[in-house]
Amino acid sequence: GDAAPSTGGTFTSANGSALSNTGQILFSAAITGGSSATAIFAWKGGTIRKILAQGDTNPLGGTFGDDMTTRVMRQSADGTVFFFASNSLWQNTEANGTSVAVGIGSAAPAPVNGTFNGGQVLQAFSSSGDVVYQANVSGGTSASAIFRFRPGAGVEAVVRLNEAAPGLPNSFTSYGSFSVNSAGTVTFEGIQSGAI
Fold first, then answer.
1. What distance lies between CA 108 and its chain's CA centroid?
2. How far, in Å, are 17, 32, 53, 83, 134 from residue 50 at the CA level?
3. Torsion angle of C-alpha atoms 128, 130, 131, 135, degrees rounded to 10
4. Could you give the 3-state DSSP secondary structure of residue 63?
5. Of all residues in the chain, what percent carry a pLDDT higher than 70?
């Protein structure tokens, strides 16, 4: 029943997601009586701020139609928030608000190339804000690949299907069990074609 900031409504339910080293709590909520049915919020020092609400204007065009209570979201140790919405990866800070990190239709990095075409699946996240995720690609060397976004460094390709396995005569047919440390180093298990 508390007021949901910047929506004109009140909280119906809320689900906490993460606590940062700065004391910020990230959560999503359902809202009644306002301009949005769902939204993502952050609480810090007794103040709640809206990060993004269903129906907000999308800088890439149109509005956000996503149910924000179902969004995959994480925050780094310093309180930078990352989430997937409208087939793009977004970041939010208290100082600068929400901005696109990797947008749908933007160029995928070499050697994958092509353009991002949605289908994001979070694979791993670090306390430094490294986001490791799978994404679909149009017009590239692979229809799907794993990427790492790092604040200040942008997006890089980690591995793609049928990529040659380093030091081996085979290529990756699948992969999984991703992890990433605070330095941004990504590790994973790969399945290769053929015999070693």
1. 15
2. 15, 15, 7, 14, 27
3. 170
4. strand
5. 98
Query: Where does the pLDDT of residue 17 fall: very low under 50, low under 70, confident under 90, or very high at 90 and above?
Result: confident
For 116, the token pair is 């991002």
Question: If DSSP states are collapsed to H, E and C, what string results for 119-167?
Answer: CCEEEEECCCCCEEEEEEEECCCCCEEEEEEECCCEEEEEEECCCECCC
Asked if omega into 111 is within 30° of 0 (cis), the reply is: yes
Confidence of residue 195 (pLDDT cuts 50, 70, 90): low
In order of 64, 132, 136, 137, the CA distances from 180 in angstroms are 29, 8, 21, 22
Beta carbons of 190 and 175 less than 8 angstroms apart: yes
Counts of helices then strands in the chain (DSSP H, E):
0, 16
Nearest residue to 37 via CA among 56, 16, 53, 52? 53
Q: Which two tokens stand for residue 193?
A: 């074609």
